[in-house]
Amino acid sequence: MDATHLRPGEGTHHRMTDGDHVAKVAVRDEQGAFEVFEIVAHAAPPSPPHISPWSAVLYLVEGRVRASVDGQEHDVEPGGVVVFPAGTPSTFEVVGESARFVGITSGDGAGRFFADFAASVPADRPVEESIGTILEVTARHGVRMAAPAV
Questions:
Q1: Which of 40, 11, 19 is nearest to 118 (CA)?
Q2: CA–CA separation, 19 vs 89, rounded Å?
């Protein structure tokens, strides 16, 4: 693998309903694969808990986030980390106006998912209007909605 350097603001931007996901780098080598994203998210209702086929690490740079992982709530402040294990119902919500964080995902599927989601689901429309498309995109990438708590 060749060395990679990106300047601030560089990367592929995927404007999504929960913020701007900037794909910074995808690493694939004999040890495996991971992807790095910068995410700027604004205050909005959280997406329903969902289950992804990849693990994700969220490192908060600015703002505050309330993360839900397998039913446990975590208040994350700048410098804090939360892990969303693959196969675990998870979601997050921005507390305040906005938050900026670094996301690192295992494997190489999250970037394809973000690109498909950004191309298919209008970021400027209410989620309720796009739920059918959202479910189609998530199904294409092995992401599924978690069953509601009983």
A1: 19
A2: 20
Tell me the residue length of the chain: 150
pLDDT tens, position by position, 26-61: 999 999 999 999 999 998 878 889 999 999 999 999
Q: Return d(Cα 40, Cα 7) in angstroms, integer.
A: 16
Residues 59-88: tens digit of each pLDDT: 999 999 999 999 999 999 999 999 999 999
CB within 8 Å of 131: residues ≥ 6 apart: none
39 in Cβ contact with 101 (< 8 Å): yes
CA-closest candidate to residue 51, choices 143, 148, 147, 136: 143
Angle at 105 between CA 91 and CA 46, to 5 degrees: 15
Q: How many CB atoms lie within 10 A of CB 79?
A: 8
Count other C-beta atoms under 10 Å from residue 35's C-beta: 23
CA 44 to chain centre: 14
